[in-house]
Amino acid sequence: MEEEWEEIAREAERTGATEQEAALLIRLREFGEMFSELPGITNVDLTTVNQCITTLTRVLATRVTERDHPEGWFFSKEDGE
User: Fold this and answer.
1) Could you read off the pLDDT of 31-59 as tens digits, one per residue?
2) CA distance 72 to 64
3) Is residue 79, in this structure, part of any structural domain at all?
4) 7 touches 29 (CB < 8 A)
5) 13/22 Cα distance (integer angstroms)
6) In Å, how far are 13, 41, 58, 59, 81 from 48, measured between CA atoms?
7) What is the mean pLDDT of the chain?
8) Cα–Cα distance for residue pair 57/28, rounded to 1 Å
9) C-beta of residue 13 within 8 angstroms of C-beta of residue 26
10) What pLDDT does residue 1 have?
């Protein structure tokens, strides 16, 4: 369990993500690796899953960027709520 928290802390430090966001990034990466090892996976399956993982990673990256650089966005939280 301690190793898992250390990995999350390293990911958070590396990416600027919160610990929760870092844990999600790690899980997304693990999901992609595990999915690719399933028997009978096709290139279409892999492409679809990789696109979904990329999209979710970008959502998390956008959260970090908006939090770190709110002045650089054309919208604010008030606009989206």
Assistant:
1) 999 999 999 999 999 999 999 999 999 99
2) 12
3) no
4) no
5) 9
6) 29, 11, 15, 17, 30
7) 91
8) 8
9) no
10) 77
CB atoms within 10 A of CB 39: 4
43 within a domain of the structure (yes/no): yes
| 63, part of any domain | yes
Q: How many domains does the chain have?
A: 1
CA angle centred on 25, ends 22 and 71, rounded to 5°: 65
The token pair that represents 11 in the structure block: 């990911």
Q: Where are the alpha helices (DSSP H) in the chain?
A: 2-15, 19-36, 43-68, 77-80
Q: Which of 53, 58, 57 is nearest to 35 (CA)?
A: 53
**Amino acid at position 70, single letter:** P
- Measured CA to CA, the distance from residue 53 to residue 70 in angstroms comes to 25
Examine residue 80 and state whether it is found in any structural domain, yes or no.
no
Tokens of 50: 């990789």
**Whole-angstrom distance, CA of residue 19 vs CA of residue 72:** 24
Tokens of 73: 């966005």
